User: Which sequence fits this backbone?
């Protein structure tokens, strides 16, 4: 029975990929051209999927057009970085104005203090901030700060956690920064505290997302985070929240929504208004170590740390575009869409669910409560792939792994259309989802 069903799902997926290949000759040609100078045509691993990934020529609002001329409603939102959409006018004005006054000034510019003030005003644990160029770099600096401050070497991370290109803990090959890692299980309070206690004297920091984003939009249990907050404080271990994605989930980040404040926070993605961005910040006692007026100041270089395009776009993004009111609105849209999709799946008895908080959602084809990444790993990945290809054909762009990140220009009609297409998938494919 199982074998028959698997063959049927395999056959459906093969059909979907054949159809995809036939519909996207220009993307295929571009992939083959790119595969000369770029390994596998790729310079960003997450974007690859088989048989070959789509390439886009243009984006506007919450719409995308690929090189074969198909139009998509964009439900990926650049993995959360594209929160403002593809052509937000206030961000465009800010970038134009910065361009008019020249790039790469080689000194301080007038934007940095305003951008830093906008960031620290938003996130309650961040008394002070320093800018980087990516979330990966922000996490590298935050962990290094904890090691410098504590004089300890160990770094606690969570299995299946993701904190950037060189902080990937999902098993398999990696090129992680060779810190001395201690791995724990997300949302398992008892085992995590036991591991923490056993390593406390050597532990510099614990780093985690308050909701696993790339790991499948799996929220941390508040009592788990509270226990970590208490134990790290008791042992002088620096608690780092990676809010590169989750900072969008309330006006003050997921930390403000939960009322649990870390010692250091890292940011990235949408906060630079769509420009390259990262930041780490926290208590003055920690961040003050970088004050160059001190004789023993820690160094933190970075040619593009204060680049005018990011600074200017970021000010517009935080103060004009993703205002606290807009943050509440977009997260409300996400809650409503998730409830609608889950009600629809339940109504049809389909073994699938959308997890997440607010404007971040992730599909899991699985019929049990998803309390951690080990549970999510039991989901039907081929059925999720089929959802991806069916939704592409219906004109929706999302991540192959089932992730959705809503952006501001999405309309109620876009959400209706998504929900209808998802229901069409359930109705037509239900027999394959078991
Ligand atoms: C995207 C991401 C990063 C890395 O940010 P980059 O700017 O891509 O280097 C780190 N942590 C989390 C949680 C992320 O989602």
Assistant:
């Amino acid at each position: 029975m199982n074998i028959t069903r698997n063959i049927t799902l395999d056959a459906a997926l093969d059909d979907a990929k054949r159809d995809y290949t036939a519909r996207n000759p220009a993307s295929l040609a571009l992939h083959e051209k790119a595969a000369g100078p770029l390994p596998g045509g790729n310079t960003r691993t997450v974007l690859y999927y088989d048989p070959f990934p789509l390439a886009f020529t243009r984006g506007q609002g919450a719409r995308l057009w690929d090189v074969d001329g198909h139009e998509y409603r964009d439900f990926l939102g650049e993995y959360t970085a594209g929160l403002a959409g593809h052509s937000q006018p206030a961000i465009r004005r800010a970038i134009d104005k910065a361009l008019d006054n020249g790039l790469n000034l080689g000194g301080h510019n007038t934007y940095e203090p305003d951008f830093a003030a906008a960031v620290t005003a938003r996130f309650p644990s961040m008394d002070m901030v320093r800018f980087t160029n990516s979330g990966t770099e922000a996490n590298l600096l935050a962990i290094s700060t904890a090691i410098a401050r504590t004089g300890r070497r160990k770094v606690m991370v969570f299995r299946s956690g993701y904190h950037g290109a060189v902080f990937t803990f999902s098993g398999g090959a990696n090129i992680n920064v060779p810190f001395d890692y201690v791995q724990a299980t997300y949302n398992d309070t008892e085992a995590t505290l036991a591991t923490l206690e056993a390593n406390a004297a050597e532990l510099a920091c614990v780093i985690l997302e308050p909701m696993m984003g790339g790991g499948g939009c799996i929220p941390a249990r508040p009592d788990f985070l509270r226990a970590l907050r208490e134990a790290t404080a008791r042992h002088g271990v620096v608690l780092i929240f990676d809010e590169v994605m989750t900072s969008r989930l309330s006006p003050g980040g997921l930390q403000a929504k939960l009322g649990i404040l870390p010692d250091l926070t890292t940011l990235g993605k949408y906060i630079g208004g769509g420009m390259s961005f990262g930041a780490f910040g926290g208590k003055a006692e920690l961040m003050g170590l970088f004050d160059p007026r001190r004789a023993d100041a820690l160094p933190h270089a970075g040619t593009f740390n204060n680049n005018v395009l990011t600074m200017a776009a970021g000010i517009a993004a935080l103060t004009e575009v993703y205002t606290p009111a807009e943050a509440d609105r977009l997260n409300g849209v996400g809650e409503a869409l998730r409830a609608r999709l889950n009600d629809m799946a339940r109504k049809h008895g389909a073994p699938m669910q959308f997890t997440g908080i607010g404007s971040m959602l992730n599909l899991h084809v699985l019929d049990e409560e998803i309390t951690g990444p080990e549970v999510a790993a039991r989901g039907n990945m081929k059925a999720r792939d089929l959802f991806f290809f069916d939704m592409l054909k219906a004109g929706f762009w999302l991540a192959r792994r089932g992730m959705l990140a809503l952006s501001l220009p999405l309309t109620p009609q876009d959400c209706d259309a998504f929900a209808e297409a998802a229901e069409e998938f359930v109705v037509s494919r239900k027999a394959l989802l078991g």
